[in-house]
Specification:
binds zinc ion, four-stranded parallel beta sheet, Rossmann fold, alpha/beta, binds adenosine monophosphate, Four Helix Bundle (Hemerythrin (Met), subunit A)
Length: about 475
């Protein structure tokens, strides 16, 4: 059914390239996730939402089970330590709190959870093994309790960001630590300060550098070469540059032949706020956590996708207002079109804007055009309503939009009633299970299913979410 080619802009090639995964049955995507010491701001949500569209598109093209998406949590970091010290708690208290908040906030933006969410602290063994391998190959060296990556050992260093080593030395001369052989060498392992968490290793007690965490988690969760590696623009240098260097050298053959680490590198542009950088010192940090209390998550998602993912995007109150209006308009048409059936499309032609490096602004204009066509068919009583509705819902579905009941969208608060109903059903199911009344438990499961609720049982109890019907 795929008549078009997906093209993606590859930062390394500095151009758009036709996307071809290594294995069409197992397409792999890794996106650098948050450092969990605080709530995510709306800028942090931009990569989440942009790569969610990519994830949904890949699932549509290759099949739901053929795409493996991993996004890590950086749960070892100076800022986490600082927060834990301030509150007088273990770092795990801080990271668990902000991981839970991150999940809730990104769910509210209708982002699907990745298949894998590795945490650095769970991969300490993999990290240490990778560092040991780099030392054994002479790609890294030990100095004063640190292990450093030897950039001079790797000819292609700087290829992703287009920097060369000499510029880097000139730029870094002032701050270079005396134990570094070269100014661009970076930390793989370092001693912990007295108040910081510490792990044992063959190179002494300490903790890993940030870059090696991602390299080790990519290897452990997906295995390189991966198809797509993504993150914000700020991560190109040094984070992704260093990830490539480490991973490629760790896997280099005896003749130093370097394997591919990621086939495509994708980076989202930055979000500004009223044309200024979003920063704490400017006091213009807008948290998703607060924003979702005020406006529907779907409208925030719309605003985030209103610009092309690679371009900078300026966040304003007006943008958010327009986004709510845009969704009002589309849901309004769907409300009028309730009785109209929906065609199942024969091909994926409507996905053309997304197939061109995720051109979401163009996709938005197509959504309006399909909605107008649908509206006109209702007004004029023509037969082409199902075709237009099929186009609208297919394109919107792959972008994660228009999945709510139009009445619920306009009612707004209706969701709360539904949530209360779900909670009651879950409690009843728990009681039924405790009484070994499995027939009743099964009945409740069917009821939840009818409400489009997916229940996930875990040791802490059951959690639930509404099923994503976009790709069913
Ligand atoms: P951090 O928690 O700072 O490591 O950031 C998590 C992700 O959000 C990374 O992919 C960053 O590149 C991205 N990010 C941070 N700030 C912004 C912003 N203002 N606009 C877009 N992306 C951002
Ligand atoms: Zn990373």
């Amino acid at each position: 059914m795929m008549s078009m080619t997906l093209t993606l802009h590859d930062t390394l090639a500095r151009d758009k390239r036709a996307f071809e995964p290594g294995d069409r049955k197992r397409v792999t995507l890794y996106v650098c996730g948050p450092t969990v010491y605080n709530y995510a701001h709306v800028g942090n949500a931009r990569p989440v939402v942009a790569f969610d569209v990519l994830y949904r598109l890949l699932r549509r093209l290759y099949g739901k089970d053929a795409v493996v998406y991993a996004r890590n949590f950086t749960d070892v970091d100076d800022k986490i330590n600082l927060k834990a010290t301030e509150e007088g708690v273990e770092i795990g208290v801080i990271t668990d709190r902000y991981i839970a908040a991150y999940h809730a906030d990104m769910d509210a933006l209708l982002a699907l959870r990745p298949n894998l969410e590795p945490r650095a602290t769970e991969h300490m063994g993999d990290i240490i093994t990778m560092i040991s391998g780099l030392l054994a190959k002479g790609a890294a060296y030990e100095a004063e309790g640190h292990v450093l990556f030897d950039t001079q050992n790797y000819d292609a260093y700087g290829q992703l960001s287009g920097r060369n080593l000499d510029d880097m030395i000139a730029g870094a001369r002032v701050e270079v630590a005396p134990y570094k052989r070269h100014g661009a060498d970076f930390v793989l392992w370092k001693p912990s300060k007295p108040s910081e968490p510490v792990w044992d290793s063959p190179f002494g007690p300490g903790r890993p550098g940030w870059h090696i965490e991602c390299s080790a988690m990519v290897e452990a969760t997906l295995g390189s070469p991966i198809d797509i590696h993504g993150g914000g623009h700020d991560l190109i240098f040094p984070h992704h540059e260093n990830e490539i260097a480490q991973s490629v050298c760790a896997k280099a053959g005896p003749g130093h032949e370097h394997p591919v680490y990621a086939r495509y590198w994708m980076h989202n542009g930055f979000l500004t706020m009223d044309a200024e950088k979003m920063s704490k010192s400017l006091g213009n940090v807008l948290l998703v956590h607060d924003l979702v209390q005020q406006v529907p998550g779907e409208a925030i998602r719309w605003a985030l996708l209103s610009g092309h993912y690679r371009a900078p995007l300026d966040w304003t109150a007006k943008l958010l207002e327009q986004s709510v209006k845009a969704l009002d308009r589309l849901y309004g048409v769907l409300q009028r079109a309730k009785a109209v059936n929906m065609d199942i499309l024969e091909d994926d032609e409507v996905l053309a804007p997304l197939m061109d490096d995720l051109n979401t602004p163009l996709a938005f204009s197509r959504l309006f055009a399909y909605a107008d066509d649908l509206d006109r068919s209702i007004r004029n009583g023509t037969e082409d309503g199902p075709e237009h509705k099929g186009k609208l819902m297919t394109l919107a579905g792959v972008m994660g939009f228009l999945q709510a009941d139009p009445d619920a969208w306009f009612k707004g608060g209706a969701d709360e009633d539904l949530s209360a109903q779900v909670e009651v059903l879950l409690q009843t199911r728990k009681a039924a299970r405790a009484n070994k009344d499995f027939a009743a438990a099964d009945r409740i499961r069917d009821e939840l299913n009818a409400l489009n609720v997916v229940v996930m049982d875990c040791p802490q109890g059951a959690t639930w979410r509404f099923r994503d019907t976009a790709n069913d």
